Every structure is written in structure tokens, then in C-alpha cells.
Amino acid sequence: MDIKNINATLAVSPQIHPADLAAIANQGFRSIICNRPDGEGADQPAFKEISDAAAKAGLECQYIPVTAGRVKDSDAVAFGAAMQSLPKPTLAYCRTGTRSATLWSLDQGARGTPLPSILETTRKAGYDMSGVVRRIANGGRTPTDTADASHDIVIVGGGAAGIAVASSLHARDSDLDIAIIDPADIHYYQPGWTMVGGGIFDASTTAKTMASLIPRDVHWIKAAVSAFEPQNNAVILDGCRVVKYRRLIVAPGLKLDWNGVEGLVETLGKNGVTSNYRYDLAPYTWKLVSEMKAGRAVFTQPPMPIKCAGAPQKALYLSADHWRRAGVLDNIDIRFCNAGNVLFGVKEYVPALMDYMERYHADLMFGHRLVGIDGPARKAWFAVTDETGNERQEELEFDMIHVVPPQTAPDFIRVSPLADAAGWVDVDQNTLRHKHFDNIWSIGDVMNAPNAKTAAAARKQAPTVANNILHDMGHARSVAHYDGYGSCPLTVERGKIVLAEFGYGGKLLPSMPTWLINGQKPTRAAWFLKEKILPPMYWRAMLRGKEWLARPEMVG
Q: Per the UniProt record, which residue ranges are transmembrane (predicted)?
């Protein structure tokens, strides 16, 4: 724990964990404030886990979630009210402690505490509040006529898409003034988490520091985005700093809505409830699978869109294959509860996948959307839609359940001028340029082009956007078009993969000759690609601006 004292009644810290609460109580704290929303990070415990542990330690606990980049005046008021009512001293935490320190600073400013005193107090605690000065002095309003920073190209998001497009731009023109905005310290290779859940990869191999991956000479603005003002070519950061741009690329990924299933956050990581969609839970998947000898295993898939549409069934296949090899498959009742009505969206791959569902005796339950879960009781509830559109609720008991949460665009995207009616960034599906703002592009999971949301898609999108920005600047001859390419290596058993590769409209787009990898059949060559080739290709090529098998299509 890295607890920083603000004053005699308040301390702030980065993310805490349930195991820390007893020690926190022993240090004399009497209450906890959580300022971090559930589901913000891949390795983050839910608030319910913290509050349960706090109660056992005799601590009061309040949940005042503040979305990264959206510290509102009302949040500061709520924080101040909590500080008035809770027993002291109080420990407030978020991802790094900065949001908690910011809330305290805003509340103190509203109470008339001299500004120099606020800045000095937070500086001694290790938090720089200089970015909030204008907000305190300006009544929470953020002027956009001046900027704290200005760059030719600003990229929002340092995930696979953001770093890949930064590297593609930098590789084309190393003199470009590029900045990436992202608050995270760690970058995750999320396609590897299926393999972690299958006992093949170690989780630590899927994580690297953000600082080690951002290209040299690309500025890293380590902050969260609060809002966009495209009419002013401005991005507003948490703390009300303003970054101006000439061209903007929006690539923050999507939001995993763990709270979208009632009772889920309270039981994640225990009671047989797991998910390969969270870094810290994928190892728990393997623990459950490797220890299970009999019972019912349930695997869920929410409504589309989700990142990697094949991942829910990949977890099933690898689990079932382990049980088959261990000789216990006949003792396990496997259910695949899919909110949709097809096993896979591209029909050419369905026959091979159905063969494996039959091999593993898996019961396919289409039209089943997970809506609630009771971990201790080992029960889950599904909204079941029949062929006529009528909906009923169905209860299903389980011994283990692999949950894929509902997924949406991040909050700060959904409420922005960049979003379409469904909340996704509104782009032309070919050029990936925004339909209404000519100097804005988007790539990755957050935009509304009708492609699969996979890392392979971002790998093909990055050079397309890089080329098109340079064309817009007059530095490239032709416009590039993205064909909707996405890839889903479906791990049907340990050692074999059905390599689905397709573009817009389900058009098959194989990247390998069929004599080497026939994507409609399970092959060992595709497994070798997934296990041995794709991870280094991700780290050393895609994120380094080397566009292997990703050259954009030029159209004129």
C-alpha cells in the first residue's frame, strides 16, 4: 500500500485490495471512500469485495465512483459530504490516488481554503494539483482559448490500436509531433488471456509497462480524458487541462460493464465465478478448470458487440478439452448460454465448431442473456427470448461459470459529440475518418464500423489511418481503405485452432495459403501461429510500426 496523508483526517492511496483492509484498520483508519468505478481496470477488485472486507475489519465504507476524466462538481460535493459524515480518519482511493486528491482539493476550494494552502498540502503528499487551479478559480469552467499542450496529432488511448497507429505514423515520418493520452501504467496483450485461462500462458507474459511500448519521440500525456470539444480542436483532460490538436485519433477501446449483470461484481473471483476478460481472473479460470472433476460448467456470451466474439466459446473449448484429456468429460454438464441465435457470425466456420460442441457434449442454449448471479448459492438467471420474441427468466445452477460481461463504448465517448446514436465513434467504414469532423479518425473497438472487434482488426486499421492522415497532410499519394478484416483464432482444443479470418459482410479473407492453414478446419499450424507467432508479432511488429501482413489497400 502507498498511503499518502493529506491532513489529520484524510489520506489517499492508489487501488487497495481486500487483503489490505485489516492492515488499514490497524493503522487507525475508521472509514474508506472508493472513488474508482467498478470495471475500470482489468485487474481491479470490485467495490463490493472491498466493502465486504472493510466491514469485517470494522470500517465504514462509501462508494463515490468518479469516471476517469470526468471529475464533476457534484462529485466534489458528495466527497465533501462524506468527509463530514464519516468517522475519521478516512482513507480515499482510486487508481492512483489522484482523483481522490482532486476531489479533496475541489471541495476545499469551494469551502474557501486558500489556493496556495491546497496546492502545498497536495504537493507534500505527492500529488500535483496545478492542473485544477483554473477550475477552482474559474468556478469549474474550462477555458479552451488557451492550451496546456498542443500537438499536430493527438491519440486518445494507449491500447493495441493507439500504440499501433502511433508507431505506424512514426515509422512513416519520424518528425511528426505526436502525443498519446492514456492514464494506464500497464499495457495488456488481451488476446493471450484465453490461453492463460486454458493453462497455456502465464498471465505475467501478457503485461508490459506502457512506458516501454510508446514509440521514442512520441509524447505520453499520462492522464484521463474528460471531454471533447471538436469545434475548438480540444481534448479536455481530468483536472481541466486542455490539449489542442490539428488531427485527432480516438482509440480508447470499450468498457466492460461488470455491473450490467446483477450480483456479478460481488462474486467475481470466488464461488466458481470467473472471466478471461479480466487479467487477474484468467488464472482463476484455469484453477477452476484444472480442479473440476464433475458438475455443471456454464459459459456465457452477451449481446453483440463485444471484443473478440469468439472468446466466450474459446474458454469452453479449452476447458472441455482439458476435461477430456483428464478423463472426466463424461462427468461434466457443459452449457453454452449465448444471447445471440448463432454459434458464430460467419457461417463457413460453423460446421467445424459444431463438431467440437458435439464432441464435448455441450448443450447450446441460444437466446440466453445472463442478467443475474448468486455466487454463494451457485445460481444464475437468464433472460430467455424465444423465436416469437417473448422473454422469460430461467434459473440455472452451476459449479463453475465463465462470464463475459456486457460491453459498451466508454462513458466519455458515449456522451461526446463524436458518438453516433448507439454511443460509438461515428466513422466512414472504409477510411475510418469521422463522418462529421474532417480532422478526426478512430480505430479499434470504440468506433462503429461493422467489423469484428479484435486486435487483428486494429493491426490492419492502424496503417490505414496512418496513411490517410498523411494523405490529409499532403504527404501521401493515395487514400487507403480498410476492408473490415478481423481474425479470430478459435482454440477448439489444445494443439488445434480454427483460424477464422473475414471482413465486412462475412467475406472470407484468409492471409495464409490453404495448403498451410485451411481456416475452415482445425489445424496444428494455426495453433503454432497463435501460441508462438502472434505474441511476438504483437509486441515486436504491430506495436513497433512493422506492418507485416497489414499493408493498407490503396484506392486512388
A: none
C-alpha cell read off for 260: 450490467
Tell me how many helices (H) and strands (E) the chain has.
16, 28
Same domain? For 402 and 413 the reply is: no
Q: For residue range 187-232, list pLDDT tens digits in order.
A: 999 999 999 999 999 999 999 999 999 999 999 999 988 788 898 8
Q: Indicate if 39 and 173 belong to the same structural domain.
A: no
**The three three-digit cell numbers of residue 543, written as one number:** 506495436
Q: 10-13 and 4-5: which strand pairing?
A: antiparallel
Instruction: Identify the domain boundary among 87, 109, 137.
Output: 137
Q: Contact, 182 vs 210, CB < 8 A? A: yes
Residues labelled as active-site residues = 308, 488
Among 277, 273, 262, 260, CA closest to 376: 273
Please give the grid coordinates belonging to residue 492: 477448439
At 96, list the grid cell.
492512483
Q: Does one domain contain both 439 and 426?
A: yes
Range of the domain at 306: 258-406
Provide the whole-model pTM: 0.81
Q: Which residues pair with 150 in a beta bridge?
A: 244
Q: Are 381 and 372 in contact (CB under 8 A)?
A: yes
Grid coordinates 488557451 are at which residue?
146
